Amino acid sequence: GSSVTMPVTFALLLLLGQATSDPCYDPGGQPRFCLPPVTQLAGGIAAPCPQACGLSPGMGPGSGAICNGSLTLDLDGLFLLTSVTLRFCTPGPPALVLSTAWATGGPWRPLWRRAAWPGALGGPEKVTLRSPPGPKARVVARHLRVEFGGRAGLAAAGVRGRCQCHGHAARCAARSRPPRCRCRHHTTGPGCESCRPSHRDWPWRPATPQHPHPCLPCQCHPIGATGGTCNQTSGQCSCKLGVTGLTCNRCGLGYQQSRSPRMPCQRIPEATTPLATTPGASSSDPQCQNYCNTSDTKVHMSLRRYCQQDYVLRAQVLASEAAGPAWRRLVVRILAVYRQRAQQVRRGDQDAWVPSADLACGCLRLHNGTDYLLLGSAAGDPDPARLVLDRHGLALPWRPRWARPLRRLQQEESAGGCRGLKSPTPSPRAGH
């Protein structure tokens, strides 16, 4: 019995020792700020000194000398720099400027400046420039450029630093292209720059010595959600049909709970009646005279008219309810976004707001369960964060043939076609 117990006990102690030795977690298993070790980075050079760069006593380089005036190093990845060492064939140049850049070709940001050394022969043959201490002074770079204050024969250049893992990894394959961090804290990506799909309950943030900012697991409901992943920014889980809520934990408007785990919310049977009165019934009301901005359901969607809209969506009306005396709240399912507004509209189920007066006067005629092309304006929107559909816009019963020309207009907008075409007035007008 003891011969079996001893190997098992040793294995458990070994696993426990590995768990507690993880620099990214404290002995209690709580996440903490961690960094990979400093290493010699790729991109250094070593070159023999040309004879023409040699200095004779009391003499400068010959007129035919071919010496370096600047040097650019590609580190083949994003790194946190700790030091740069330059070794020259002879006493170094009178002055040095070291610049860094994140992308090829710059923009370059001066990092270290070395003023001219006293004396006619310039500076020492070896110079080491070190990154200043402190987290705020960290230097992140992909490219380095060294500019000499005069011609210099450079023998070698060495760069030391660590992978940029944003405080979420203690190990890194620095020689990989690109460098890959061994991410902890439920992060992922070459530099641990995002959360795993199953841990997006809170937006990703880099770790700091004061707070490790680990990625938190999604709190998606096991029955109401389609899976365990959620949105990187909002934490919104992907809900099943008829289910709503950040974690998909309740039935939406127009749905009730069922006993089926595959479809936990089912639609409440209701008569398909319009949400607004008919134009004939509302025309007798004096307050509705000349109230609606549109009088027909036909509109010619040119590029100019498309660009004048605050948004262009294809949506299905699922349910509605009164939200006070002035507004009616709709539950709509956004099926396609053809023109995005300033406050972005996401696909899926969300709320939309319609003024009660606009429905009563017949400016908008909406039916539950029907797909519409929604053309919206920001004219009557009291809250930019809300999706508002009012008399300044249009709700047209959807026609499948509209999809292709709308996508073409969307492509023209992406190519800059809407520049200078926005209307000075926010209200769209119908065309015949």
From TrEMBL:
Domain NTR residue range list: 288-418
Protein name, as recorded: Netrin-5
Lineage: Eukaryota, Metazoa, Chordata, Craniata, Vertebrata
Keywords: Developmental protein, Disulfide bond, Glycoprotein, Laminin EGF-like domain, Neurogenesis, Repeat, Secreted, Signal
Residue ranges annotated for the Laminin EGF-like domain, each copy included: 218-267
Biological-process GO terms, alphabetical: animal organ morphogenesis; dendrite development; motor neuron axon guidance; tissue development
Organism: Cavia porcellus
InterPro entries listed in its UniProt record: Laminin/Netrin_ECM, LE_dom, Netrin_domain, Netrin_module_non-TIMP, TIMP-like_OB-fold
Function: Plays a role in neurogenesis. Prevents motor neuron cell body migration out of the neural tube.
Signal sequence region: 1-21
GO CC entries: basement membrane; extracellular region
Positions of the UniProt region annotated as Disordered: 411-432
Domain of life of the native organism: Eukaryota
